[in-house]
Amino acid sequence: MTTRRKRAEPVAVAAGLLARVGLTEPLGGPLGIIAGGGLLPQRAAASAAAAGRPVHVVVLDGFAAAPDYAAYPHIVCRLGAAGRMLDWLRAARVQDLILAGRVSRPSFLSLRPDAGAARLMPRVGLKAFGGDDSLLSAVVRVLREEGFNPLEARQVLAEVMIDTPGVLTSTYPDEQALGDIRRGLSVVRALGSADVGQGAVVQQGLVLAVEAIEGTDAMLIRAGGLRRDGPGGVFVKVMKPGQDRRVDLPTIGPDTVAAAATAGLRGIAIQAGGTVVIDRAATLAAAEAAGMFLLALDPSAPEWAETPG
User: Fold this and answer.
1) 283 and 251 in contact (C-beta within 8 Å)?
2) Per-residue b/e over 112-147, b at no fewer than 16 CB within 10 Å?
């Protein structure tokens, strides 16, 4: 007598796959989104809603626009109103939560914390005065202590990551460009270890610009003003060493490609499985139209170690 093997449920299979890559299984209930600027939080909201999850959005005042979230329950909050944000999310029975979109870090004096934020701030401690990753990791820890489950963006929007290393365009980097990428990775590793930035522009071995508090767009404008004659430079954008994957992952999109092209660059190198690509089709189309290469790489692979000299 033969027995039929019970077919694994799709949910169980998905949970196993997530566990193998070190992610936790989303609960499947309401999803909260703390939304900064850009398309990523909008895409995350649409993806979760399409999957049948109720979506509740905290629109960060000055960074995101409430009309973009008109289809979902939402409130508009300033950054310092953390108490109001969390109370509203709790009232909506939200546990799963993502932090997505561009946010410029305010000065401490301009934050004006509400009573709830003032209660939480001592638990963030001196991390509030460190780099972005130090601060955001502390924020994630506090959110967990408050009963929330911060998720990585790809748990809601799987297509934002390019997982396999390789060249994604018809234009390939030449030896000069590969050398500039190695140099850029070395610089970004040093920046990341100091919790400063995630990007650098290198041309013919010269570091034209590094990313700090001004962000990617301003850095690319600055790099364009410093470009040298000859083959254009490359933009390298990867995670900081040891970075928390749930917040502030490096991100590029069609606008990044356009800014890099305007700066006279000939390619962009990103981290496979570690850089968010907003609107992959449009990003690749923009790179093809500009004659630029887009390379996904594993920064830890031996071929990306900088050659001395």
Assistant:
1) no
2) ebbebbeebbeebeebeeebbbbbbbbbbebbeeee
CA angle, 208 then 209 then 212, to 5°: 170
d(CA 111, CA 147): 24
Q: What are phi and psi of 213, to 5 degrees?
A: -70, -20
Q: Tell me: the pLDDT tens digits for 133-175? A: 456 666 777 788 888 999 987 788 877 888 899 999 999 999 9
Backbone angles phi, psi at 298, to 5 degrees: -100, 105
Separation between Cα atoms, residue 15 and residue 169, nearest integer Å: 33
Task: Give CA 213 to chain center in angstroms.
Answer: 15
Going from the C-alpha of 85 to that of each of 98, 145, 155, 246, 277, the distances in angstroms are 13, 15, 22, 18, 28
Question: Which pTM does this prediction carry?
Answer: 0.74
What is the crossing angle of helices 280-290 and 254-262, to 10°?
20
Q: Count CB neighbours of 288 within 10 A.
A: 16
Beta bridge partners of 35: 59, 100
- Residue 23 is predicted with a pLDDT of 41
Residue 253 CA from chain centroid, whole number: 11
Q: How confident is the model at residue 125 (pLDDT cuts 50, 70, 90)?
A: low
Q: Where are the alpha helices (DSSP H) in the chain?
A: 10-20, 40-50, 82-91, 115-124, 132-145, 175-193, 216-225, 254-262, 280-290
| Strands 234-237 and 199-203, sheet pairing | antiparallel
Question: Residue 261, SS3?
Answer: helix
**Residue listed under structure tokens 């290393």:** 165
Domains of the chain: 27-156 (3.40.50.20), 161-304 (3.40.140.80)
Tokens of 131: 């780099």
